[in-house]
Automatic annotation (TrEMBL):
Start-end of Polar residues biased regions: 88-106
SUPFAM superfamilies for the chain: Periplasmic binding protein-like II
Ranges where the record places region Disordered: 85-130
Ranges for domain LysR substrate-binding: 3-87
One Pfam family from the record: LysR_substrate
Superkingdom per UniProt: Bacteria
Gene3D superfamilies: Periplasmic binding protein-like II (3.40.190.10)
InterPro entries according to UniProt: LysR_subst-bd
Entry protein name: LysR substrate binding domain-containing protein
Length: 130
């Protein structure tokens, strides 16, 4: 996601390390080992406690997709069903659900790509932390 944005602007970025764990990213940033771009909900507590500082992008247009994946022959748990029910089945911002076979006969349901809906609370709130 970020690589695509910087490439579009002919900006060269040479990351020293790439980590997928928000907890590890926040730990490294908190001890002055660089900077990161993370969704606000992942850093809100740390910002409130003064552990991290954040800057909000003036015009946020970064987004990523998430996928809800479940085994096709098992019923949804209550938690999974609750998340599933919160995802709009049709939206001007999302394509319809598509289903396909994945490894081990799992079913994959996908609603995407879905850029943030500007009418939803917190939509597109992406922050840089330092």
């Amino acid at each position: 996601m970020l690589e695509r944005k910087v490439d579009q602007r002919n900006i060269h970025v040479d990351p020293a390390i790439e980590i997928d764990s928000c907890a590890n990213i926040k730990s490294l940033v908190s001890i002055d080992c660089g900077y990161s771009i993370l969704p606000f909900h992942t850093i809100a507590r740390d910002v409130a406690r003064g552990r991290l500082a954040c800057l909000e992008f003036e015009t946020p247009n970064l987004w990523s997709s998430a996928h809800l994946v479940h085994h096709s022959s098992r019923p949804l748990t209550r938690a999974t069903k609750a998340v599933h029910d919160e995802i709009p089945s049709s939206s001007t911002h999302c394509s319809p659900i598509t289903r396909g076979q994945a490894q081990h006969s799992s079913r994959v349901g996908r609603r995407g790509p879905c850029p943030p809906d500007p009418t939803r609370k917190g939509s597109g709130r992406v922050l840089g932390i330092s």
